[in-house]
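Please check our next protein.
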Amino acid sequence: MHGTTIIAVRHSGTVAMAGDGQVSTGATIVKHSARKVRRLYAGRVLGGFAG
């Protein structure tokens, strides 16, 4: 299985988004503290990134 863990929940007009912090290539862990959830467009957009 390939993928990353990003989860988002919206309730009553409020959004919460979270992701794991591990970056890997195959079975090798490259980084333990990556920021995969980012605020974009002056904080009005949330983005989640694989890695």
Notes: Strands lie at 6-11, 14-19, 23-25, 28-31, 37-40, 45-48. The chain has one domain: 6-48.
